[in-house]
Amino acid sequence: MRSITKTFPGVKALADVTLEVGRGEIHAICGENGAGKSTLMKVLSGVYPHGSYDGDIVFEGKTVAFRDIRDSEAVGVVIIHQELALSPYLSIAENIFLNNEVKGAFGLIDWNKANLEASKLLARVGLRENPTTKVMDIGVGKQQLVEIAKALSKRVKLLILDEPTAALNDEDSAHLLDLILHLKEQGITSIIISHKLNEIKKIADSVTVIRDGKTIETIAKSDVTEERIIKDMVGRDLEHRYPDHTPNIGEEILRVENWTAHHPQDPSRVIVDNVDLNVRRGEIVGIAGLMGAGRTEFAMSLFGRSYGTRISGKVFKNGKEIKTRTVAEAIDNGLAYATEDRKQYGLNLIEDIKRNISMASLRKLVHGGLVSDNEEFKVANEYRKSMNIKSPTVLAKTGKLSGGNQQKVVLSKWIYSNPDVLILDEPTRGIDVGAKYEIYTIINRLAAEGKGVIVISSELPELLGICDRIYALSEGRITGELPIEEATPESLIKLMTMESPR
Amino acid sequence: MTNTTQAPPGADQGFLARAKRFLARAKPTLLHIAQDLGKNGIFLALIAVVIFFAVRTEGILLYPQNISNLIVQNGYILILAIGMVLVIVAGHIDLSVGSVAAFVGAISGVLIRDLGFSWWMAIIAAIVVGALVGAWQGFWIAYVGIPAFIVTLAGMLIFRGLALVVLGGANVGSFPDEFRALGNGFVTNLFGEFDVDPFTLGIGAVAIVGLFIQQIRTRRGRLAYAQDVEPIGWFIAKLVLVGAGIMWIAWALASFKGIPVTLIVLAVLVLIYGIIANRTVFGRHIYAIGGNRHAAELSGVKTKKVDFFLFVNMGVLAALAGLVFTARLNLAGPKAGDGFELEAISAAFIGGAAVQGGVGTIAGAIIGGLIIGVLNNGMSILGIGIEWQQAVKGFVLLLAVAFDVFNKRRAGGR
Description:
The structure holds two protein chains of two kinds.
Chain A: E1 2-8, E2 11-17, E3 26-30, H1 37-44, E4 54-59, E5 62-64, H2 69-74, E6 77-80, H3 92-96, H4 111-124, H5 140-153, E7 158-162, H6 170-185, E8 189-193, H7 197-203, E9 206-211, E10 214-220, H8 226-234, E11 252-262, E12 270-280, E13 284-289, H9 295-302, E14 309-317, E15 320-322, H10 327-332, E16 335-338, H11 342-346, H12 353-358, E17 366-367, E18 370-371, H13 373-386, H14 403-416, E19 421-425, H15 433-448, E20 452-457, H16 460-466, E21 469-474, E22 477-483, H17 489-496
Parallel strand pairs in A: 3-8, 3-9, 6-7, 7-8, 13-20, 13-21, 16-19, 19-20
Antiparallel strand pairs in A: 1-2, 1-4, 4-5, 9-10, 11-12, 11-14, 14-15, 17-18, 21-22
Chain B: H1 2-5, H2 13-39, H3 41-56, H4 64-89, H5 97-113, H6 119-144, H7 148-167, E1 172-173, H8 177-184, E2 186-187, H9 198-224, H10 232-255, E3 259-260, H11 261-279, H12 281-291, H13 293-298, H14 303-329, E4 331-332, H15 340-350, H16 362-381, H17 386-410
Antiparallel strand pairs in B: 1-4, 2-3
């Protein structure tokens, strides 16, 4: 790709970007959110058609002009987007051959042949599933593999993966990375966009860093270090990835006893099993656990019974028992829960920043029975400044903000509700290094104000970097509790994978 | 700006420079006006439709009598549209409002004729019935979790059937004057008889003053909180234009029979619901639910309660519409309210409500309803048959929503 420039109304997303990927290599692209990585890949794959950008794309020595994805797929360029493009109600085989159907006699679809072809493809990606299984019945990690099988069915030469492991747990991630290496041996070139620097180090042959729509540099494998990538990404040295935090821990503020919740569709399954935990004033408590350990389920069942059935257990705040039967009751009792899935559960994306921040505490803005627009504007503006939400005005729609800024809006909403205990579920998922640092700073500030903070995270370094104490959760049970001095990745993983005695 | 630079060589240099400076200063204002017009495209569309039919009917459309008729004929659709747009904003739909209007009309008729209810008792009873019907549908939608489309489709059949049961298959008619006033009455001549009723003009003037005060207060409030406001010139120009429009309508009404009671009911509803939608917690929760139901729930919004009361409210408004319609015809018939739901839904969508929910305004729905009303009325004056009227309305609905979708896409949203 030579000198690619792409502008959107009012924004120059890419400015003169040049990217060279050698045949058969795995090329990683790094950059903060909004740096232009995804835009660049959409240009390459024909999502943005030829003519809507400046510059040339040269593929296998020929200058190409893709009008749409079909054009790019025809020559073997396939993109797998961050949000998977599978239809949950269709089978694996149906998804693989969607719009590329295996035709038999009379132009009708030959399902036997399609399923057979699909099983061959599944074998190539190492997925042992029946091709007639519905996609909604398999996990996200397997869905990712189905996407790759789909790409293979199109005789892919250049595979573009946009943050393929963002939603995967460590095990699925490792499998996926192995698969990409395996594909490389078969001569398939890959471009991988990722936030996870350790992954990049593991598999990439070279790394290109993009910042503010410009290429900063391309680093060969031998020269790749995390520090160098981070420096390129943020344009400054980050001495520490986690801000300093001097804990000032006080009395116990929240205690949960014997918390149990059952699966909403299958009440015989125990998802959260007799969880006991506590948080003290000014303390940041982590919950570590693998995907499916019941972390989110615990938090949501606690927060107004938003998950699960047959919920039992007791909650004490400042030593007094409180009820959290509805979300409103939980909020009134000083709890806040910032979800792991901002777009689905956290924000009203078609509404502006102001109305999102006020959503959980509208009553505070009521004067004489009416919501004060001006007061709301003022409050939102204060949060825009104090939380460093990068938007010229609070009237901007939250759907147009980057992940980090969206997360700051979600946090503003909960801070404005003035809780005593905040449960933050994957607070830095899908946001870039610079914004992560800001989020950690905010978490520290909340603790310093004497609030209790519970952080749920899949990233162990993050928990180790910011928490004062960490609980490990496995199969819905607390399997251990480590003060930060004793916690190491190894000790946590051991607890996180501890199976229950049967 | 190119034509100013290409001015003849002999032009006054000072003038040129001043013109340039003026344009540079006026640019933000002009931009703002352009944006404003873009955002209020639906209002411009209404004006365009009015002008089109005013020309084609050689002015008949704008006769005082016809303006009065337009309001009275569309009153019940507009009342329904107010409730409908809120239902749609929350991501639901209500197909039953026409049948509910007929059912309530039938009950009010029977109460007055057979049970000797006085007019005001009948009105109160009818509104209570409307609320109960709404509670019934709200229960299934909010607490049982059946999609509103299904519940109200069932309601459409159920209440049409019950209307027939109540009426015993016949029309019920001839109501007391007070009751009929709801659909046919005019408030006029309070200051004695004139060619042009001064009372009506006075109300028009009061409305304008009220609007001015409210707008100026809002502007002051925003300035006090250091928010952006419209350029002052455009602000005043808009107020003057809107004021002139109100005065012109008041003049037309004053030279006919005065202010229709329906218009008073409608004006009160628009005012109240405008405030509910924008300035109350309940209203804000409706938009929050429509925008993202999960996020609203996890922010402590009692989504079920809001859904329930939305339908109770819709039931009350459907009852009111049924009363106005019954009063206007002086007849409660089994076919009353046929197709009202579709006109009310069309009004909301033409007025910019989004099918996915979360977007829509009371003012938009009213303007959408007026566009449909003017189309109906204008085409009737031109003698266009009902068959073509239907088809044209269908096209207008499609075009309006297509334009809206196009507009949003151009604005960069996806």
